[in-house]
From TrEMBL:
It comes from Streptomyces griseoloalbus. This is Putative DNA-binding protein (MmcQ/YjbR family). The keyword DNA-binding applies. Keywords: DNA-binding. Pfam families: YjbR. It comes from the Bacteria. GO terms for molecular function: DNA binding. The keyword DNA-binding applies. Coiled coil: none annotated.
């Protein structure tokens, strides 16, 4: 499976943005790239081996953002029961996929949902 340069650029922007948030760390459980805060995942960045389409999975509590994310081409509630608690998987490849800026907004919302209040406050102070 070949990955478009545009999707790869978006993925890298989102990854860099996520890891720049206060207290964020990168880990690779199950061979997948994730960003965590306080030992909890706030964004799944997928498997970077080229065997799967590039995408991100974020937790969106805001109903408008959640509905917008689900309306993206190929987007779906996350598997393993995570969709029931607001997690949405958004592919980066399809025509009409969200911009890196919008994806970063969603990553920030997901981060704020998971991060301790003091780290979210640190982000507000920036």
């Amino acid at each position: 499976m070949t990955v478009s340069r545009n999707a790869l650029r978006k993925w890298e922007k989102v990854r860099v943005y996520a890891l720049g948030l206060p207290g964020a760390t990168e880990e690779h459980p199950w061979g997948e790239t994730v960003a965590k805060v306080n030992k909890k995942v706030f964004v799944f960045l997928g498997v970077g081996d080229g065997g799967h389409p590039l995408g991100v999975t974020v937790k969106l509590k805001d109903e408008t953002a959640h509905a917008h994310a689900l309306a993206c081409p190929g987007a779906a509630p996350a598997g393993y029961g995570l969709g029931a608690s607001g997690w949405v998987g958004v592919p980066l490849e399809p025509r009409g996929a969200p911009s890196a800026e919008l994806l970063c907004d969603w990553v920030e919302e997901s981060y704020r949902t998971i991060a301790p209040k003091r780290l979210a406050a640190e982000l507000d102070a920036r």
